[in-house]
Amino acid sequence: MGFISRIITLFGLVLLAHAGYSAHEHTILYSNTASTASGGTTALPLDIVIEALVSLVLVSAGLVLGAEKLKPISWSEWAGQIEREGGGRNPYRRLEERYGFWDVRAKRKEFADWMKGEVPVPGKE
């Protein structure tokens, strides 16, 4: 998250907290008046509503600006991108490098070579 996006998000959160506090104070202030006692309601003032909406937009913009680059949707594209980069970001690298487990890629290549007839069939040499 960049510095600018953090500042925007922080400013938006401060505005949101202020709008919430103002709405609470407005509700408490007008809860004891005669207009609400007779069943009437008082809506929030327009400036509080606008402040809440602006703070919501600022927080959203700050979070979007600070987000990481999106990953491809397709699993095969994502896996291909990791392979092209050398596998450094591969989350399954520890599982693939464990010793004593069956090497799937080597066995697939061995089977493909056997199907092409490049490797003799074991036992029929």
Automatic annotation (TrEMBL):
A cellular component term, taken from the record's GO annotations: EMC complex
Pfam families: MMgT
Record keywords, A-Z: Membrane, Signal, Transmembrane, Transmembrane helix
Membrane topology category: Multi-pass membrane protein
InterPro entries: EMC_subunit, MMgT
Cell compartment(s), UniProt: Endomembrane system
Gene Ontology process terms (BP): protein folding in endoplasmic reticulum
Transmembrane portions of the chain: 46-67
Domain of life: Eukaryota
Transmembrane helix is among the record's keywords: yes
Signal peptide span: 1-19
Family, as annotated: Belongs to the membrane magnesium transporter (TC 1.A.67) family.
Protein name (database record): Magnesium transporter
Organism: Aspergillus kawachii (White koji mold)
